[in-house]
Amino acid sequence: MSTKEIEWDGLPIPKRYGAILAIAMGITVSVLDGTIANVALPSIAEDLQATPSMSIWIVNAYQLAIVVSLLSLSSLGDILGYRRVYIGGLFIFSVTSLACALSNSLLMLTIARVFQGFGAAALASVNTSLIRIIYPKRHLGRGMGINALVVAVSAAGGPTIAAGILSVASWQWLFAVNVPVVIAALILSFRFLPVNPVKRSERKFDWISGVMNAFTFGLLIFSIEGFTHGVSLPVLLPGIGVMLFVGYFFVRRQLSREYPLLPVDLLKIPIFSLSVGTSVCSFVAQMLAMVSLPFFLQHTLGLDEVATGLLLTPWPLATMVAAPLAGRLLERVHAGVLGGVGLSIFSAGLFLLAVFADQVPNVGIALFMAMCGFGFGLFQTPNNSILISSAPQNRSGGASGMLGMARLTGQTTGASLVALMFVVFPVNGTYASLYFAGGFATLAAVVSFSRVSLPEPELLRGKAKSG
């Protein structure tokens, strides 16, 4: 077995700044493109002479491509190098963004969005693995804090940026603006991104597992999305059956692999599996709140779109403050404690919104929103750090992939639960969604605090020896 190990403790300044900027730029455009097209769907459908229901595939194609390829690309990062996969993702994203801008039919745009999703998956699959080797061990939390900040702000700012572009240009520019940003990120990546400090030349990519993974998670998300959009159960049952059949043999195959595509071996590490579970619950809570709150503010409180947008703004603003702060606090406070405190604040904000939002002035609602955003930001940085650092150095790609899958699974489940709440509680669906969100956040807080009894990865404090 040939293993090459390099003594490594991050990049020196200013190379570190160039590397993190390359990652921030790539992640910004990939996250933005997950939400930015939503605002333009009506105009895109009209321009391409498509029905509203068919135009939804412009969004779904992108998300499905990410889900089916994320873990495979994470595995390739461990084998080929995180730098290569990230740069390859940037190249694919730039070419397909241009293809999206030049599309003159729904079919062409949908195909371009599929390949754009593959590019975005490559970026998401290894970005936290790169942060692990860009930052010194003692400052890993700071790097994770910056990454959490970029993701949160990009996700929250998507609709606003889309509205700004559409006010002065056509929908094609939503995709065309990606090109110069990604080219700049490519230049920075070639110059500053480091190679993997640990390489295993004997490891080969498991293509069979890759195909099984695509079927399992693709059909899972497709079934959840179908349920959300009102597809009848008899139509969904065949896909669910195939998913369960393939998924069973997929998991069995992973249990016998030395380097499984689905990192079931990493899930045997208690603090890793608890961190994955906490991440899923937190994103379920986040999506339950973010999808239901606009309905709550407009239908229940009678606010208009402008007031709704303004009252939602404190959430991402508070996250912008909390995420980098958490990165610095992580150097002094146990990640389980810091994450638990953040989730407790998040949960309190959600319950306060559910109970008092219709009884307090708008300033009170803004305060509750800020609590949610601050708590979520305070949690994400330590949770991501502890998840990535608890995996061996040569399995960082698998850990990064699990982090991305936890986010996608939680977000998709949360959005589907909102649809279920509106069906089960036609009058009080928004209240039910917020109460459920608070419940998931509370559960995540309990799990996070339980990690305090487990040994914290020494890498978080810079105590680990290289290798």
UniProtKB/TrEMBL annotation:
Main location (coarse class): membrane
Membrane topology classification: Multi-pass membrane protein
This protein's UniProt keywords: Membrane, Transmembrane, Transmembrane helix, Transport
Bilayer-spanning residue ranges: 20-42, 54-73, 85-108, 114-134, 146-167, 173-193, 205-224, 230-251, 271-297, 309-330, 337-357, 363-381
Pfam families hit by this protein: MFS_1 (PF07690)
Keyword Membrane: yes
Domain of life according to the entry: Bacteria
Subcellular localization(s) per the UniProt record: Membrane
Keyword Ribosomal protein included in the entry's annotation: no
Any one cellular-component term (Gene Ontology): membrane
Alphabetized GO MF terms: transmembrane transporter activity
Domain Major facilitator superfamily (MFS) profile as annotated: residue spans: 19-456
Alphabetized PANTHER family for the sequence: MAJOR FACILITATOR SUPERFAMILY MULTIDRUG TRANSPORTER MFSC
Name of the protein in its database record: MFS transporter
Annotated organism of origin: Butyricimonas faecalis
